[in-house]
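Consider one such protein record:
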Amino acid sequence: MSSGYLEDLIILLVAAVAVVPICQTLKLGAVPGFLIAGLAVGPSGLGLIHNLSEIRHFAEIGIAFLLFVIGIELKPSRLWQMKRMVFGLGTLQVLITGLVLVAVSYYVFEVPLQAAAIIGPALALSSTAFVLQLLSEQRLLKSTYGRTSFSILLLQDLAVVPLLALVSLLGASEISMGDDIGLALAESVFTLLMVILFGRYFLHPVLHRIALTKIPEVFTASAILVVLGVSLIAEKVGLSMAMGAFIVGMLMSDSSYKHQVISEIKPFRGLLLGLFFMTMGMSLNLGLLIDQPLLSMGLVALLIGIKILILFPLTYMFGLSKGKSLAVSLVLAQSGEFALVLFSLSLDSGILAPALHQQLLLVILISLLVTPILAECARKVVTKKKLIGINPSEVPKSSPIILAGFGRVGHRIGDILKLAGKPFVAIDIDPNIVRKSQANNLPVYYGDVCNKGLLDSVGVGDSRIVIVTVNDMETSKLIVGSLRQTYPDLAIYVRGGNSLECTQLLEVGASAAVSDTIEASIELAGMGLTSLKVAEKEKKSILTNYAKHYYEQIKLAKKN
């Protein structure tokens, strides 16, 4: 790497570190933060970076990682559970909003038809990352309003795939209705079949063999190789890197390794995706806003107005109250990150003119900046309705218990939870345990329980209880300490080897710790007392008092 690239990289990192946290504090979100940071160091800002082409090519890998994670999270069974809202309401929203925006672009603003065909559906999409973040912060993600918004966003994520294909098709230099399109479709279908066969008969067994080595660095390298390798193959046959990454993500949606793969990919995805948004910010021409502020603000108002006017009656038709329909319409009224992706690819393909691209970027940025205001208005509408009367269907269901470790102890706890009818999710580093458990239809996934990103992936933030069953003291302390620091109200129960280990686990944040030795001793002593004909009531009293005294001593040791 030359010193020039190193200087540019340092400038970008400094800008991101300085601007993004400020935007998060102001409730603007990370995506606008990266855009503003890029704008600050780009030609329209301080002019610290001028050569964007090499940075943009590198940042496109972030798009592939984003589509991979979306694909891996779009589990078919999950889509089917919400089929009415996802495929009904979501499809209508994208189609109607897209068609209206195409018509407005073509007939009102006289945009070429090819460009309008991309602009309409791209602007119909909202910001998945930003909206879900806001709903999570408002603790409304599991409400009817939140679930409806999530269903529409889910369909919008799916719509990206055909839109990527549309960009590739419209960007072809010479398209005939016969041989060229037929050949392109045949190549796409053949590639899709090859990727499916690769995932079914090659990918999972290879990941299993790599997991058996228990070398984290090799697993990380293999995860990155899978995403980039399939993305490159897709690009070579005329599809896009993003589409290839999405397909391989879908193939891994039912894999027991998916959570670990997500946790390995997540840091790279976040950094490279942030770099992509910064390149978009650097591409912005701030002069457009300064020279024609009314035009830019008018276009944003028109976009938000159209999306609200279409979404409100649609959501109302699907059974939501007027208040919730208005809230969904407000929170999804912006354009999002996928529009940036599609417009960037369209610019490279020659579909969009540079001037039009600049204006569209400005509209997206401003719509993202006003989203927190719209989301706050939506929250007030929903919470106002809740004061009148709470709908029982809006009360969030209990989140599953997470078992950190699924060896002998974890497996028995899982059996007990299953008998009690309580849902749980388990994580274990041993691929053989995972494979055997999955064969018995148990929700056990491969991964390192010390990895915070993995725990986030399985929903530790929404869980009430984490039970740590790993048979390693240092690992247990690391898990408990990390969880307690991030989730102060979480109930964390953990096993220890003896009284000293239990004391140490309580000190780092465990809600309660159970000693292996004392429980075994009590069971064995109970058997002995039974053999000596000690009365059952007396035996139970002796053992209960002994255990109570033992754990009281542990608590006293913690205080001292």
Notes: Residues 179-213 form the longest helix (35 residues). The chain has a mean pLDDT of 78. Strands lie at 401-404, 424-428, 444-446, 465-468, 491-496, 512-515.
